[in-house]
Amino acid sequence: MELVIDIGNTRVKAALFINNGIHKVFTYKEAGDDLYNDVKRFKIRAIIVSSVRKLTSEDVDLWESLAPAIWLDHNTPLPLINDYHTPETLGRDRIAAVVGGRFLFPKGPVLCIDAGTCITYDVLTETNVYLGGNISPGIHLRYRAMDEFTDALPLVTELEVDALFGKSTNDSMSTGVITGMSAEIDGMIIRYEEAFPGIQTVICGGDARYFVNNVKKKIFANRNLVLLGLHKILLFNERSLT
């Protein structure tokens, strides 16, 4: 059994894998004792950790007490060619997402969209070259920006909209953000389809569900895309753990 841990900006998601399939998924605010206590009863042979947060020596000791671990960074060997010019600044979740995208779509170019704190777009060519992508503010960042950088607009938290336009300030902000981001996603997919004919698009992330039914373009959703990619990276590097 293998354990993969994805430590993001606002939450921690982990999964146990058996025979290349997900056995159980865990979600927490922190990758600490609660997660450790939930997984320590399983027989884990290898671990991979991806984190956008700075990890302490205590974090490392905690997980390496369970099993040999890979700490994903820009030096970790990958099952693709990384053509990003600043790999040391590349979000670990972004590279894991495209590896997961290749697992879901073994042939052809792939566009991976991750709708979280930020919304990211990352492209993998049919020859397995990761070219890079785009980063844009996510839902909550857009709401916060309107609140913090204006005097009159409130902080809105509404995530479900059922109209094209709003008839109050709050509703106008909600529809502006959600329908605006849906239009952004459609537009980005169109641009990538023009550049990479036959490209397949997959979306993941905590806010992905607000867009799957709102975008016009064909899009495949997989909420565990990053976890799948991390597992493939772990298997690609398993010889280094022995």
Note down, in words, how this protein is organized.
There is one protein chain. The protein is of the alpha/beta class and 242 residues long. It has two domains: 2-71, Nucleotidyltransferase, domain 5 (2-Layer Sandwich), CATH 3.30.420.40; 104-221, 2-Layer Sandwich (Nucleotidyltransferase, domain 5). It has six helices and eleven strands. It has helices at 33-39, 57-64, 92-104, 139-148, 169-195, 225-236, and strands at residues 2-7, 12-18, 21-28, 46-51, 69-71, 81-82, 110-115, 118-124, 129-137, 200-204, 220-221. A six-stranded mixed beta sheet has the order 6-9-8-7-10-11, with helices on both faces. A five-stranded mixed beta sheet has the order 3-2-1-4-5, with helices on both faces. β8 (118-124) and β9 form a beta hairpin. α3 crosses α6 (225-236).
SSE layout and pairing:
Layout: E1 2-7, E2 12-18, E3 21-28, H1 33-39, E4 46-51, H2 57-64, E5 69-71, E6 81-82, H3 92-104, E7 110-115, E8 118-124, E9 129-137, H4 139-148, H5 169-195, E10 200-204, E11 220-221, H6 225-236
Parallel strand pairs: 1-4, 4-5, 6-9, 7-10, 10-11
Antiparallel strand pairs: 1-2, 2-3, 7-8, 8-9
Question: What key phrases describe this protein's structure?
Answer:
alpha/beta, 25% strand, 242 residues, Nucleotidyltransferase, domain 5, 32% helix, six-stranded mixed β-sheet
Uncertain spans? none
Principal-axes geometry comes out as globular
Question: What is the name of the CATH superfamily of the largest domain?
Answer: ATPase, nucleotide binding domain
Supply the CATH architecture of the largest domain. Answer: 2-Layer Sandwich
Measured on Cα atoms, how large is the radius of gyration? 19 Å
| Strand coverage percent | 25-35%
User: Can you give the helix content as a percent range?
Assistant: 25-40%
Q: How many individual helices?
A: 6
- Spatially, the strands of the biggest sheet line up as 6-9-8-7-10-11
Number of domains: 2
Got a strand count?
A: 11
